[in-house]
Specification:
18 helices; 2 strands; mainly alpha; two-stranded parallel ribbon; globular
């Protein structure tokens, strides 16, 4: 645990506190869920290369397997949001990923399509539950100066997990024709390390104060930030629960967050679940297509890191608008000219990767800043669930569209979704840069 900051004898708000090693560790550990999400979603695309011919899967079955974890996240995010607002962040923060360990390891022995589908749905439920828990905990501890980059860093961890999956998948694929089992089971290893790292994390003082446990909240604040730190009281706090999301002006916010989140992940999930196949359809073959997906993933990781450096300089609204505009244009060009030379195709995919980072990092920043503590978990969980409905549907439809209409139509569909996200952002995206949590919840 950090020593409380020294040299400050005057009272200061937690929102104005200095950055501590505690915050950096919390950001790293909170990124464990998104890391596993990226890992689980991406590695299935590589595993399917072996599973499909061995099990004789048709397009619909491929889509179901690819979308299974996302389907689980739909339910897990909503459930996790409700539970974390009601029972606190700390308990679920430690225990929700234990299920990932168990169900991931079980995939090593799976021999039935529906059993594999069920296991991956359950993995998705556990990962989905972690999103509102970890994001709320990180948001409520982090000073406002660092909040945007720190919450956005959770998305960076998603891409780090995806990049790791492609590297692991490429190695394991060459070892055995049953390598897909080890690929899918390997998620248990990082999940176990994350669970161990999270043990001992304190409860959110904002949640404690909201539940009337003021003495406990003050004790946590004093331990982390020192005796002169205080919490800003959020006036006009709504009762917790999903019902509050539809009252006091929150309906418009949930519509905005859900819509832009969906528009940012549908094209991305389609590319990740079937990246090697899409690239193969655009002219790349075999391992070159798999490695091309890995390179694009690394560029996406770099893109998110760049977006984190710009999130406070440009502001949330400007970053989101430019991200959708340029990434959507790139997807449109891929759809209109699918027969372009390989070098052009790779260049366009790389350009999409570079520009989509802004929309990706804001997926968790906006919902955590736009809703008050009592309903923050429920808001993040509901937005994540609703956006993943679109993500799951898109992932399921990708192999069907690829088979019937080809890569060009698939990319045109992705471009349409991204440009819809642009329209929503221009119309509704607010600016929350530099505001305390109480202030951003009132705008």
């Amino acid at each position: 645990m950090d020593q409380p900051p020294h040299g400050r004898t005057e009272a200061f708000l937690v929102d104005d506190a200095p950055l501590l090693r505690f915050h950096k560790r919390l950001a790293l550990y909170s990124g464990g869920g998104p890391f596993l999400d990226g890992y689980v979603l991406s590695i299935i695309g590589i595993a399917m290369v072996q599973v499909t011919p061995q099990w004789g899967l048709n397009s619909a079955q491929q889509g179901l397997i690819a979308a299974s974890a996302t389907i689980g996240i739909v339910f897990g995010s909503f459930l996790g949001g409700r539970l974390t607002d009601r029972f606190g962040r700390q308990r679920l923060y430690v225990f929700d990923l234990i299920a990932v360990i168990v169900f991931s390891a079980a995939q090593l022995w799976v021999d039935d399509f529906w059993v594999l589908f069920l296991l991956r749905v359950l993995i998705g439920v556990a990962i989905g539950a972690d999103y509102p828990v970890a994001a709320s905990l990180l948001t409520e501890f982090t000073p406002k100066k660092y909040r945007g980059p720190f919450i956005g860093s959770l998305t960076v961890m998603w891409f780090a997990g995806a990049a790791s999956a492609y590297l692991v998948g490429d190695i394991v694929t060459r070892l055995s024709d049953q390598g897909w089992r080890w690929m899918l089971a390997s998620a248990a290893i990082p999940a176990a390390l994350i669970v161990l790292a999270r043990v001992g994390t304190p409860e959110s003082p904002r949640w404690l104060a909201g539940k009337g446990r003021v003495d406990e909240a003050n004790a946590v604040v004093a331990k982390i930030f020192g005796p002169h730190a205080t919490l800003e009281i959020e006036s006009g706090r709504p009762a917790g629960g999903v019902d509050a999301l539809w009252k006091s002006g929150y309906f418009g916010r949930i519509v905005f967050v859900t819509t832009f989140w969906t528009a940012s992940i549908v094209p991305l999930f389609a590319v990740y679940a079937f990246g090697p196949r899409i690239l193969a359809g655009l002219g790349l073959d075999g391992r070159t297509a798999s490695m091309g997906s890995a390179v694009i993933t690394i560029l996406l990781l770099v893109s998110c890191i760049i977006a984190l450096t710009a999130i406070n300089k440009l502001g949330r609204r400007t970053l989101l608008i430019h991200s959708f505009a340029w990434s959507g244009l790139t997807l449109l060009l891929l759809g209109l000219f699918p027969g372009s030379p390989v070098s052009v195709i790779l260049c366009l995919f790389a350009t999409y990767a570079i520009f989509t980072g802004g929309a990706q990092v804001l997926q968790l920043v906006y919902p955590n800043e736009l809703f008050p503590t009592e309903i923050r978990g429920s808001a993040v969980g509901l937005a994540s669930s609703l956006s993943r409905v679109g993500g799951a549907l898109g992932t399921y439809l990708v192999p069907i569209v690829l088979d019937r209409w080809g890569v060009g139509s698939t990319m045109l569909g992705a471009a349409t979704v991204a440009l819809a996200g642009l329209a929503v952002s221009v119309a509704w995206a607010p600016e929350t840069r530099g505001k305390s949590l109480a202030e951003s919840a009132r705008i």
